[in-house]
């Protein structure tokens, strides 16, 4: 029983300590990715609603020009656990997108304003058009990007803030851009962020670091929309297991104490 208690204690310590541990992800070229302080870090984290709303704005005005989020619908923006835009705001945001629909009575496709039930609009009709517009490179879908890359949100933040001057000793391939966080340090995507490119209305400073952090948080929510709910369930399970272990330990002591007393009494009589 003592071993079981030690196991539970070790699990709890790891769960609490792991999020804050320094992440030194080396891609083989000396790249180190620093761990960031995220509000949604386990085991008791949560999403910052204002940050998610700012992150959507950055995605909408910057990322959505090349990247889609085909697994998300506009109505998800108003659901609990996410940005939680109001119903009117969700309808307004959806209506800003022009969605291809049809065919109509004449057999032709047509454009219409988006509805909350629509999936996020893709910037390109197909992969071929996407490659043609991006020099042969295919911008990946961002729906689950925060879970698809080693390092998760820390890597995404490092990637978006990793653009800089090319080191003198490095030879760049034509059409590529230097990025300190990207494996090999050469990436086809040009620097998408610059100071003041998106206007914030809540007083947050419009800097590259804030843009990167906000849109990374938004992508994390997109990849894990039920994250807060999972954390709550996990916390309840851990509490139950700890209480159960304590009860079992006390029960074990109570049972064996009576056995020991009987054995002691029997030995005394003999």
Q: Give the C-level CATH assignment of one domain.
A: Mainly Alpha
Question: Kindly state the mean pLDDT as a whole number?
Answer: 88
Approximate strand percentage? under 5%
Q: Kindly state the percentage of residues in helix.
A: 40-55%
Distance between the termini: 32 Å
Count of DSSP-assigned helices? 8
Oligomer: single chain
Gyration radius, to the nearest Å?
26 Å
Shape: elongated
- Total beta strand runs: 4
Main structural class: mainly alpha
CATH architecture of one domain: Orthogonal Bundle
The sequence of SSEs as H and E is HHHEEHHHEEHH
| CATH fold node name of one domain | Cytochrome Bc1 Complex, Chain D, domain 2
Low-confidence stretches: 12-30
Strand order within the widest beta sheet? 1-2
Main beta sheet, described?
2 strands, antiparallel
Write up this protein:
It is built from 8 helices and 4 strands. It has 270 residues and is mainly alpha-helical. The chain has a domain of 136 residues: Cytochrome Bc1 Complex, Chain D, domain 2 (Orthogonal Bundle), CATH 1.10.760. The strands form 2 sheets. A two-stranded antiparallel ribbon has the order 1-2. It has a two-stranded antiparallel sheet with strand order 3-4. The radius of gyration is 26 Å and the shape is elongated. It starts with a helix and ends with a helix.
């Amino acid at each position: 029983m003592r071993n079981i208690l030690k196991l539970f204690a070790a699990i709890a310590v790891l769960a609490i300590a792991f999020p804050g541990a320094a992440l030194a992800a080396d891609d083989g070229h000396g790249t180190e990715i620093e761990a960031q302080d995220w509000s949604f870090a386990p085991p008791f984290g949560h999403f910052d609603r204002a940050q998610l709303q700012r992150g959507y704005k950055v995605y909408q005005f910057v990322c959505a020009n090349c990247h889609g989020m085909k697994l998300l619908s506009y109505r998800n923006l108003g659901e609990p656990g996410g940005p939680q835009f109001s119903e009117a705001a969700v309808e307004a945001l959806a209506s800003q997108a022009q969605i291809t629909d049809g065919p109509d009575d004449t057999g032709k496709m047509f454009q219409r304003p988006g509805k909350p039930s629509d999936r996020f609009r893709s910037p390109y009709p197909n992969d071929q058009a996407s490659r043609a517009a991006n020099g042969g490179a295919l911008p990946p879908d961002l729906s689950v990007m925060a879970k698809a890359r080693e390092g998760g949100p820390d890597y995404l933040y490092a990637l978006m803030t990793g653009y800089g001057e090319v080191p003198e000793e490095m030879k760049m391939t034509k059409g590529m851009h230097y990025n300190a966080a990207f494996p090999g340090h050469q990436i086809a995507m040009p620097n998408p962020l610059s100071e003041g490119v998106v206007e914030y209305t809540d007083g947050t400073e419009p800097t590259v670091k804030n843009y990167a952090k906000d849109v990374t948080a938004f992508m994390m929510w997109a990849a894990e929309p039920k994250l807060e709910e999972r954390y709550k369930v996990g916390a309840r399970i851990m509490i139950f297991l700890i209480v159960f272990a304590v009860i079992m330990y006390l029960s074990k002591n109570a049972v064996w104490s009576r056995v020991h007393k009987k054995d002691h009494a029997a030995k005394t009589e003999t």
